[in-house]
Structure formats: C-alpha cells, structure tokens
UniProtKB/TrEMBL annotation:
Ranges for domain Response regulatory: 9-131
Modification 4-aspartylphosphate, positions: 61
Keywords assigned by UniProt, alphabetized: Phosphoprotein, Two-component regulatory system
Organism: Undibacterium flavidum
Protein name: Response regulator
Keyword Cell inner membrane attached: no
Top-level division of the source organism's lineage: Bacteria
Coiled-coil regions, chain positions: none
Amino acid sequence: MRKNYADLNVLIVDDDEFQVEFVSDLLRELGISNITTADGGKKGLAAFDRALVKPDVLLCDIQMPDIDGFEFMNAMGERKFTGGVILMSGQGSRVLHSASLVAQLSRQNFLGNIAKPVSKEDLKEKIQQVLG
C-alpha cells in the first residue's frame, strides 16, 4: 500500500529548539502530522527505541553536543532502521557530504542532505522519495 504525506511518521532529532519547531511547521504544511521530536541524539535514540510505530522518515541534525549525527547514523544502522534518512546542517557542504557518506556506509536509506535554514521545497523533494 502506497502512503501519502498524511500517513507518514517523522522523527526530528535536533538540539536546537527553534529548528525543531520550524521543521515541524514545514512538515505540517506538507500535511504531515505524525511528528515526534527529540532534543539531541540521546533523546532521539530513546524516542526511536520506545516508538511503537517506527518512523518512515528521520530528520537528523549533524552537529549536536551529546551524540552527533554521525554517531546517530551508526546507532540507526545497528537498529536496522529501514526508513528514509535526511541529514540537516548549517555547517556547509563539506560536512553534509561527509555525513551522507556515513549514512550510506551505515546502510541507511539515505534521502539526501538539507542545508539550514531548511526550505519546504527541499523537504518535499526528499520526502517524496519515500512515497515513490
């Protein structure tokens, strides 16, 4: 059964509260309402582990103080996460490129990078890949 935006479950992992709210608002504008947020990597792993329905899409910041995006991707690989992964960063293209390699090496379904500030068009383009 093919899903649409309204059916998707999304987990946002970012230590910046403003970014979490901003990205959540963009997702709601796309029609996605099943949104779980986590303030940083450790809370993101805990939210993933306790979720009864695993996310279809994971939006993860790369620069976080407790567990960075690289470590988070490795942990998702260990958990055999099969949903789509979108990495977010305000750190520039080099960091985003490195993170995309890590995501691919950890056997993630890598949907792409989004530079901050995140745009609705970028989000829509990346998430569309999950919907087919």
